Amino acid sequence: MVDPVRFKKILITFLKILIGIELVSAMGVGFSTRQWDRLGFDLLIAGIIYITWDRIRMAVRDRRNAYKSKIESGGENVKVWDAMVFSLLWTDAIYAGIPVDRKRLVVISYTLIALGVLAAFIDIGGGLMPLVIAGTLVLAAVNLLAWVVSSERGEKDELKTELRLAHEVQLSLMPKEQPTVRGFDIAGTTIPAREVGGDHYDYASLDGGSKFGISIFDVSGKGMQAAMSAVFTSGAFASEAKQTTSPADILTRLNATVYSHSKRGHFVAFLLASFDLSSKTLAFANAGQMKPLLRSGETIRWLNSNGVPFPLGMTEDAAYEQQCVQLQSGDLLLFLTDGITEAMNARQELFGTERLERFMGSVDCKDCSAQQVLDLIDQEIKLFAGGAPQHDDMTMVVVKVQ
Q1: Angle, alpha carbons 292-296-299 (nearest 5°)
Q2: N or C: which end of the chain has fewer CB within 10 A?
Q3: CA separation for the pair 297, 211 (Å, rounded)
Q4: Is residue 143 pLDDT above 70, yes or no?
């Protein structure tokens, strides 16, 4: 089977060589015959061809993404001209996106179209016979392409439905409202990306209500598998939290469960924090998740954890340790997934940890509630992204010590 992308490159290269040979030959004749006007004309033509080719390349580069966005957002209301230009500009990408088992059908379709065009100019039996043969070949090609496109569309629609349902299940397991906790003001949110991810957060009452737990985790991968892994991990955590109240013990037990039920290479970055409501002490264990960010007075620091830093499911016998921090009234804590710091703008620049630190240092903790801080961070990230697409779920929980 001939690869259309490679064939196109070979054809363009061949045309460039022919044009180059013709120009060199013409300039050679101009030098040998001393026909300076012809030589000047050939050089002018060469310059025009080069400039035109360069302009076409620049125009194509500038218009590719514009047409792609227009086609993707246009749905069924796409003009014939736009569809044709989009197809010409994105030939390589379109062909590369066709499943391997259907590329042969696409090649056959274009071959039938080529044969149909050829048949229209060949005298076969006279009369209307050439047009009949040409029309039959082209109709067969169009029907074949229509089947490939409709089949792909049906599979994509089915996948979108499955992903939507998985996302709804995943979101249904997250808190529906902000918790009321004595001595703490808490607010959390997940901002889902277009593709289903594995971010999840939840709250839990621990040790008979004397402690309050916050779990935040991120499952590796995207799509249905990540969503289902997030649902499984959430259920497993709820079960383990009933056996012990120690964040380190819970993660150690949870790791064994995740390891035995996950495919190798799939991990869960998990952070569990426990707040003692009487002493206002934070105890947390971290399994490969983003470090919590603490603002205490004018000091801002990332809280390091002790022990094994691996995500859940990486090793079977990982034993996690916990870290304790004494909190003060007015302290501000931020728990987050890497979707926050890895948010990108149109220039592919990351939001980053330093920018987050500077922003958290500028927030007025005295006059802002946890929900207001959450909203301010969200606004800052959106302002930085400037409309660039979100590539990963963004989850964060803000805790303000009262």
Answers
A1: 90
A2: N
A3: 24
A4: no
